[in-house]
Amino acid sequence: MSAPEAGLRVLVAGGGWAGCAAAVELAAKGAQVTLAESARTLGGRARGVEVQGKLLDNGQHILLGAYDATLRLLRQVGIDPDTALLRLPVQMRYPERSGGMDFVAPRWPAPFHLLAALLRAKGLTRADKLALARFTTTGRTMGWVLYQDCTVGELLDRYDQTPRLNRLLWHPLCIAALNTPPERASAKVFLAVLRDSLGAKRRAASDMLLPRMDMGALFPQAAARFVETHGGKVLTGAKLTAATPSGDGWQAALSGQEAEFDALVLATPATQSAALLAPHAPDLARQLSALDYEPIATCYLQVDPAVRLDLPFYALLDDPAQGRWGQFVFDRGQLDAAQPGLLAVVVSAAGAAAQLDQDALAAGIAAQLARDLACPQLAAPQWTRVITEKRATFSCTPGLARPANATPLPGLVLAGDYTASDYPATLETAVRSGIEAAALIRAYGTLPREKRRLSHADGMDASPSVS
Prior knowledge:
15 helices
């Protein structure tokens, strides 16, 4: 930091991945950071939870090799991605007798790895393979850019994708990446994900990365240690209940305790940020309040510890009308040796599933696994637990106007996976947003105090833009 920037007192409200990323970036540059989280643990919607004496996650996650910002910050806070994450080539593999397909790329240079996967794919007809080749070739030609947004369903129809290919590949990818059904999901955002994964020039960008440790340990806890070793504070159980402009800074009420800061990063959920902003920036508060949300359910099933799937994870054919809710199943025992026989089944865009009784949902998923994996004992797990995040992500619909990190309030910026980005609500989006928020605060910190004070009085955004 330059001299005016060094020592800037910054409150980062919200200890999810976006807030932790902002706190790390600011602390690394010399800011006096206070990271405050209302819950007792950090991580937000990607955190560790204790279930039946095991430390699991509130939701099973897959990262991509294209998540450059996330991988950089992991290294910065002392986490080695090569040991913390299981790296697998891009794949969509269904259990052999389930009626799905087997698509897995070799570790060849791009784009030859996808060509080989397509030629070797089982469970796809010639028409399916030609449709997939046509779509990916067209995507590369157009730079994976769609100027007039539409739904993913409309995009797939436009390029004559076959019903089977939609069922086995595009629909599951859309739901997994955007957590929004294809008939409502943004095609522009979906193409951006494909651009940086399937369409990337680096083969490694398309790799799938499975966490070997709980999500809290993977980044938030390491980020907290980094902030503290750089002179910052980390507060849990400390909720920001009000924020008021004060002189050339902000007065914050943290669980009833008042404190003064030079700048504020709002990394709280959009609904909470809207309530805090309503007295000061009503238009922005209304934009945040207008976001809709999609749930994600994760069902954990503990079976005999001797059970081990043939692969670390499988795609599953879901059909809610037939009681088939699971979309992906993960063998946690292959990620963590301390969790043998523990399976995690993900249900994204889980609006209908979230309405079910948890025991009934778990029983349906167990029966689905037993049939698809031809393993009858999976139908009677030792215990189950369903964890549902009702507001896991925003609904990623066509043409959605997402708020920028900068706000009309000097020295106050937003951070979160809902902020403006060509990506959906992913961990990478959250991390990128936190990094951008930190850059805006650092730029604001270079302003003379007199100019900060003047900008507060004028009610104008004095934060320089950062490209």
